[in-house]
């Protein structure tokens, strides 16, 4: 079996090699500061005793697990600290497939491309349920697609790439569908802090033995490079996940866990609100400029991506490269997120230059 290099690395490499100034809106790497306490935690760490430089418990530092468990209203035994939400998703999907209740993983279209990649890697079979044009998922469509062969339903709200935030009712119905088919709902909530209307609803709010929640600090604390995330499992599913995590990773970064814990203790809600405010401003500036350029676009309710469609210029890989060379703006081809958004491009609002980027797009395509 060959594993495909995610398209996103190809686009980033192309943008990096470009012979001109390029506004980089490819990746989900925040350009804003992590919490001050997180930086302090890392500084402090450098001077700790030698034992702090040795293996942490595989499942994660006890104090960090306790803090997460208290915040999320779950039992500490349910929490596994992972190498980002990415590993949390891998563990959750692997756990669903190894129950031998089916081989199919139901995903949405558009989809975060790592989900089909992991599904195939784990020997599962991806199947897709289309969202509506705003990115909302109709539970009736999921119910129709689900079968005896469904091992898991994997969803992400707030959503990358659509910006949709699923209402509580949707999450509740998805849990019910998972229960009815003896499957697992995997709810990836890594953008939970980027919820602009306060409409986000966590699957943890619904008691069930059929849901696994994944999350991480990459986005909320602007630390995609530190690799600290977690998964919350039902009690009866956690043991195997701990085993797999140990065999694959031994453990995840100890300094990262230490710094995240300090940041959780010492960061007040203002930090998160400032980040949301910055993004609200960027969403306004970018979409207003797209509007003026006559493009079609999405207005995210959550996460930090905008999808745009330009008449006669579909979001293919070739056109993405052309925009890098000719307009000096790098986005992601919509085709990377499934069939339904092939005409679209996705732009990550991780640069202060969003207005300039939209003007460049308008100048080239308008
Ligand atoms: C939907 C989604 N899940 C998971 C991840 C990976 O997050 P982490 O850095 O915590 O592994 C990302 C990163 O872009 C994402 O968009």
Automatic annotation (TrEMBL):
InterPro entries: Aminotransferase_I/II_large (IPR004839), AspAT/PAT-like (IPR050596), NHTrfase_class1_PyrdxlP-BS (IPR004838), PyrdxlP-dep_Trfase (IPR015424), PyrdxlP-dep_Trfase_major (IPR015421)
Organism encoding this protein: Natrarchaeobaculum aegyptiacum
Ranges of residues in domain Aminotransferase class I/classII large: 21-360
Keyword check for Transferase: yes
Protein name, per record: Aminotransferase
Phylogenetic placement of the source organism: Archaea, Methanobacteriati, Methanobacteriota, Stenosarchaea group, Halobacteria
Stated family: Belongs to the class-I pyridoxal-phosphate-dependent aminotransferase family.
Gene3D superfamilies registered for this protein in UniProt: Type I PLP-dependent aspartate aminotransferase-like (Major domain) (3.40.640.10)
Record flagged with keyword Transferase: yes
